[in-house]
């Protein structure tokens, strides 16, 4: 099982297929990354206690990450 730490904007895309919050400059990269992840399920959140990079958009974040895990 693979765990992905995802920012709030990208988690909306993963959970709801709502891509309206994605920066247009990053749209193709975000969608391509999500497609390579395959089926995932939300597994909760994780507080990194500082800065971290989203596994989908690669933007630096601070605070809590949404954790998604691969299925299968």
What does the model show?
- By secondary structure, this protein is of the alpha+beta class.
- The protein has one domain (3-70).
- The chain is 28% helix and 40% strand.
- The chain has two helices and three strands; from the N terminus they run βααββ.
- It has a three-stranded antiparallel beta sheet with strand order 1-3-2, covered by helices on one side.
- β2 (40-53) and β3 (60-70) form a beta hairpin.
- The model has no long low-confidence stretch (mean pLDDT 94).
Q: How would the blueprint of this fold be written?
A:
Blueprint: E1 3-6, H1 8-16, H2 27-37, E2 40-53, E3 60-70
Antiparallel strand pairs: 1-3, 2-3
Q: What is the strand tally?
A: 3
Number of helices: 2
Widest sheet, order of strands: 1-3-2
Tally of structural domains: 1
C-alpha termini separation = 7 Å
Shape: globular
The share of residues in helices is 25-40%
User: Mean pLDDT across all residues, rounded?
Assistant: 94
Using only C-alpha atoms, the radius of gyration works out to 11 Å
Share of β-strand residues = 35-45%
What is the H/E string? Answer: EHHEE
What brief labels describe this structure?
72 residues; alpha+beta; 3-stranded antiparallel sheet; 2 helices
What's a quick, concise take on this entry?
The protein is of the alpha+beta class and 72 residues long. It has one domain (3-70).
């Amino acid at each position: 099982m693979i765990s992905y730490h995802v920012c709030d904007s990208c988690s909306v895309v993963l959970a709801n297929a709502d891509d309206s919050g994605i920066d247009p400059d990053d749209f193709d990269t975000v969608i391509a990354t999500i497609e390579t992840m395959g089926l995932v399920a939300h597994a909760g959140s994780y507080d990194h206690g500082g800065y971290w990079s989203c596994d989908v958009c690669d933007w630096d974040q601070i605070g809590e990450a949404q954790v998604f895990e691969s299925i299968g």
